[in-house]
Amino acid sequence: MTAYPNSLSPSPALSDERTLESAINCLTEHLPITMKGSYSVREMFEILVRCASRGDSIEQTVRTLEGAPSGNDIRYHLEKFEDMAMLEEQLNGALHSRIPPKVAKGRHRVILDLHLIPDYGVPSEADASYVYRSQAKAGTTRCFAYATVYVICRNKRVTLGIHAVLCDETLVATVTYLVGIVYVVHQVKVTLHQLHDYYRQRFGIETSYRIKNHCRIRTTPKNPVLRLLFVALAFILVNLWVYLLWYFVSCPKPGKRVVYQNLFPLKTMLEFLAHAVERRFPVITAVYLPLPH
């Protein structure tokens, strides 16, 4: 239950700088990449976090920020992520690293779902294996498909794993991959009434997907590895939000922990991230024309 305090503490429990630091630490810990030149790994991830926090593209973001790396520089280094299996392992490690103890140590019903992102145009031969056929959606039957496993605890969704689904992959193979990170108990006796209640939680699932879309980088590249990175980054940020709520925007009470979500909704966290990055790369506020020769 969300609590509404009557008064606030004199010192902040969480700042935008600390929020950005938490996000960058999570990414640099689990997504190692070698960079040479005038920009650092941290700065590259700061640009990606700014893209996600605004739901924007890389090109638009770097055009908006003063002193930011070029879009070509960012893409050049991102192309170093080539191994899909390795990237999935690294991204799932990042997801696991920001899970509140109540979820990490508890027993929960896990939920597996398939998320489809429409694809347009003609994929290359190398990328075609990740183009998933589905019912028509947004004017196309081609999608990039991502399977996720997660739990909903106290109305908060925490993603435990993500997997890019191949076009010819069976459902059994997808489930087998995802449940290899959780301990699953099956053949549990559940009444029809309970099943009805579980299904009603579907509304919460769909809502959580819409929340995730608030922090997904908008992109057009066909590279399935980079698409996975951008989609997973959104899930990582949502996990981070739940993590920060638990550790910084809450107070222990006898027998429970009171979380003040109204003081730190997801949109506030995204604003924190954007503002902290913009302190390093200020937003361009004027346009200058080239001088005549």
Folded structure, characterized:
- With 293 residues, the chain is of the alpha+beta class.
- It has one domain.
- It has eleven helices and six strands.
- Strands 1, 2, 3 and 4 form a four-stranded antiparallel β-sheet that branches. Strands 5-6 form a two-stranded antiparallel ribbon.
- α1 (16-30) packs across α2 (41-54) and α2 packs across α3.
- The longest helix has 25 residues, at 224-248.
- The radius of gyration is 21 Å and the shape is globular.
- It starts with 15 loop residues before the first helix and ends in a 13-residue tail after the last helix.
- The model is unreliable at 183-192 (pLDDT under 50).
Given as residue ranges, the uncertain stretches (5+ residues, pLDDT < 50) are 183-192
* Head-to-tail CA distance between termini: 66 Å
Question: Fraction of residues in helices?
Answer: 40-55%
Identify the overall geometry: globular
Please state the average pLDDT score.
82
Kindly provide the radius of gyration, computed on alpha-carbon positions and rounded to a whole number of angstroms.
Answer: 21 Å
Strand content: 15-25%
Number of helices: 11
| Structural class based on helices, strands and sheet pairing | alpha+beta
Number of domains: 1
Count of beta strands: 6
Give the topology string: H per helix, E per strand: HHHHHHEEEEHHHHEEH
The major pleated sheet works out as: 4 strands, antiparallel
